[in-house]
């Protein structure tokens, strides 16, 4: 049975989530504040965390940062804050997804199932399959998965952009993070760079670049690699 930790100081929200999770055969733990959440997660790591940002003791962003020091377990933020800046900050800190309150329970559970299906993040160089290509992140090579045909040429900039996406399968990587890692912090607002280079990667890697299945745009936030 999958175990989910709810971190929220609103009793009505906690109760609603607890009832709905148990009805779908999840094991549930609850924490009313960030300190308790960090302690429970360390003592018995859950399979996923549902986290409110407005906690009474420490900001939810700090809880995400504290968790990411030692674990890559899925974190879905559930927050009434609708500002895009808040969403980007949570995702930059390491959250996997962000759902604005109020939300439909069915949408929450669809997102929960999605994050629980994702393979873990790749911390060390490894091999990733993307459509018809076998990509070696350590050797920086892309060859046909069939074993037949010529290797694919990617520019150094394309490699720097593609690598963080492939290392975090299924997780949204913010545009700000990509711009910072590829071009430097002074270029964090140059979103046109991303559009141009992601389009190039899709033409090279996606079977149908006009309808990408693996390099997905999250409008206003960033990009996601779906295996």
How would you summarize the topology of this molecule?
Layout: E1 3-7, H1 11-23, E2 27-31, H2 34-43, E3 48-51, H3 60-68, E4 75-79, H4 84-93, E5 97-100, H5 105-117, E6 127-130, E7 133-136, E8 141-144, H6 156-166, E9 172-174, H7 175-183, H8 191-205, E10 215-218, E11 222-225
Helix pairs in contact: 2-3, 6-7, 6-8
Organism: Actinacidiphila oryziradicis
Subcellular location: Cytoplasm
Domain OmpR/PhoB-type: 125-227
Architecture overview:
- The protein has 227 residues and is an alpha/beta fold.
- It has two domains: 3-117, Response regulator (Rossmann fold); 127-225, Arc Repressor Mutant, subunit A (Orthogonal Bundle), CATH 1.10.10.
- 40% of the residues lie in helices and 20% in strands.
- The protein contains eight helices and eleven strands.
- The protein has a five-stranded parallel sheet with strand order 2-1-3-4-5, with helices on both faces.
- Helix 1 (11-23) links the parallel strand 1 (3-7) and strand 2 (27-31).
- The model has no long low-confidence stretch (mean pLDDT 90).
Question: Summed up, what is this model?
Answer:
Helices cover 40% and strands 20% of the residues. It has 227 residues and is α/β, with parallel strands linked by helices. It has 2 domains: 3-117, Response regulator (Rossmann fold), CATH 3.40.50.2300; 127-225, Winged helix-like DNA-binding domain superfamily/Winged helix DNA-binding domain (Arc Repressor Mutant, subunit A), CATH 1.10.10.10.
List keywords for this structure.
227 residues, alpha/beta, Arc Repressor Mutant, subunit A, 2 domains, five-stranded parallel sheet, 11 strands, WH-like_DNA-bd_sf, OmpR/PhoB-type_DNA-bd, two-component regulatory system, transcription
